[in-house]
Design brief:
- Helix content is 90%, strand content 0%.
- It contains 6 helices and no strands.
- The protein has helices at 3-15, 18-23, 28-90, 94-175, 184-234, 239-243.
- Helix 1 packs parallel to helix 4 (94-175) and helix 3 (28-90) packs antiparallel against helix 4.
- The radius of gyration is 57 Å and the shape is rod-shaped.
- Residues 43-91, 139-166 form a coiled coil.
- Belongs to the PspA/Vipp/IM30 family.
- This is PspA/IM30 family protein.
C-alpha cells in the first residue's frame, strides 16, 4: 500500500462526519459496530504502512549519518596526509612529501563525494519525515475517533433503543385512544352502543305490544258489559237489578 494511498484513507476517515452517517443509517447499532470494525481495520493497515515508512526513514537517516561520518573521516585522513607531506617537505624529502599530498587529495575527493551524497539525501529525508509526521497525526486522529466510538457505543445504542421504544409506546397509545373513533376501542364502543340501542328498541316494541293487549282487554270488557245489559233489557230487567 503506497504512502499516498494510506494517507488519503486516513484523511478521509478522520474527516468523516460520524453523526451524519449515523443519522442516515437504518440500524444505528449495526452502523456503529461496522464503523468500529472499519476503523480498527484501517488503523491496523495504517500502522503497518507507517511502520514501513518509518523503517525506510530510519534507513535513510542511517545512510546519511554514515555519509557524514565517512566524510569527516576522509577529512581527518586528508589533514593527516597533508601534515605528513609538510613534515617530509620540511625535512627535504620532497618525493615522499608529494606522495602524501597526493594521498591528501584522494582523501579530499572522497570527502567531497560523501558530502555530496549526504547533501543529496537531505531533501528526501525531509520529505519522508513530513509524510511520516502526517501519517502519525492521521493515525492518532483515527485512534481518537475509534476511542470515541467505543466509549459512546453503549450510549448511542441505548438512545436508539429508547427512541424506538418511545415510538412504539406512542403508536400503542394512539391505537387505544378512546377519543379516536377510528381506533379499535372506539369501534368496539360504537358496536356496544348500537347493541344497547337495539335493546332499547326491542324494549319499546315489547312495551307497545303490552299496552295494545291491555287496550284490547278493556275493549273486550266494555263489549261484554254492553251485551249483558242488552240481555237484561230483553228479559225485562234493568242493569241495576242485575247488579243486585
Amino acid at each position: 500500500m503506497s504512502k499516498q494511498s494510506i494517507l488519503g484513507r486516513i484523511t478521509t476517515l478522520v474527516r468523516a462526519n460520524v453523526n451524519s452517517m449515523l443519522d442516515s443509517a437504518e440500524d444505528p447499532e449495526k452502523m456503529i459496530d461496522q464503523l468500529i470494525r472499519d476503523f480498527s481495520t484501517n488503523i491496523s493497515d495504517a500502522e503497518t504502512a507507517i511502520a514501513e515508512t518509518i523503517g525506510n526513514l530510519r534507513l535513510l537517516e542511517q545512510d546519511y549519518d554514515e555519509d557524514v561520518r565517512t566524510a569527516r573521516e576522509w577529512e581527518r585522513k586528508a589533514i593527516a596526509a597533508s601534515s605528513k607531506a609538510d613534515e617530509l617537505r620540511s625535512a627535504g624529502n620532497s618525493v615522499d612529501a608529494d606522495k602524501f599530498d597526493n594521498l591528501a587529495k584522494v582523501a579530499l575527493q572522497r570527502q567531497i563525494t560523501e558530502e555530496n551524497e549526504a547533501r543529496a539525501a537531505e531533501p528526501t529525508i525531509a520529505a519522508q519525515r513530513e509524510v511520516t509526521a502526517k501519517l502519525k497525526d492521521g493515525l492518532n486522529g483515527m485512534r481518537v475517533k475509534l476511542q470515541q466510538l467505543q466509549t459512546k457505543r453503549s450510549e448511542l445504542v441505548a438512545r436508539a433503543k429508547t427512541a424506538e421504544a418511545q415510538n412504539r409506546v406512542a403508536d400503542a397509545v394512539k391505537s387505544i385512544d378512546v377519543l379516536d373513533p377510528t381506533s379499535d376501542l372506539g369501534r368496539f364502543e360504537d358496536k356496544i352502543r348500537r347493541q344497547e340501542a337495539l335493546a332499547r328498541g326491542k324494549q319499546e316494541i315489547a312495551a307497545s305490544t303490552l299496552d295494545s293487549q291491555f287496550n284490547e282487554l278493556e275493549n273486550f270488557e266494555a263489549v261484554t258489559e254492553v251485551e249483558a245489559r242488552l240481555a237484561a233489557l230483553k228479559a225485562g230487567r234493568t242493569p241495576q237489578a242485575l247488579e243486585q
